[in-house]
């Protein structure tokens, strides 16, 4: 891929109805990154069908059928940026140190950006070793967060410009 690459980042969709703003973003994206916990094959196949390119991993709630379709850690070089995606990174305490060991400059297969999920908590930090850690939150299950979220990004010349999208509450009743 050359030039600016439009990316959508999602995680933890948990077989729920995907909000239209996410599908609208997917429709214009060059790459969709999903950090696991699909929980059903239909959701994976919907993303696969609608995405120009999909970089995805499985999560702790994904069964054998999904695990057979994607890796635990997926990787891709995009716009000069080494991307990795994994579902779980463990507890927030010590996350940066663990991720530096797993994905930092001294690791076997370093990444510039690690997209992860599991917590449903939007996250954007950089480790002491220089790995950018990004969690898009969940577009379908806000848990203890004020809103459901996903992220979009522009990748160009090895850089990542990230935008968080807070979704409106779902209608009830």
Automatic annotation (TrEMBL):
Q: What region holds the Calcineurin-like phosphoesterase domain? A: 6-157
Q: Which UniProt keywords apply?
A: Metal-binding
What are the required cofactors?
A: a divalent metal cation
Q: What is its EC number?
A: 3.1.4.-
Q: Please, which domain of life does this record's source organism belong to?
A: Bacteria
Query: Which protein family is named in the record?
Result: Belongs to the metallophosphoesterase superfamily. YfcE family.
In its UniProt entry, what is this protein called?
Phosphoesterase
Which species expresses this protein natively? Actinomycetospora aurantiaca
Q: What is the lineage of its organism?
A: Bacteria, Bacillati, Actinomycetota, Actinomycetes, Pseudonocardiales
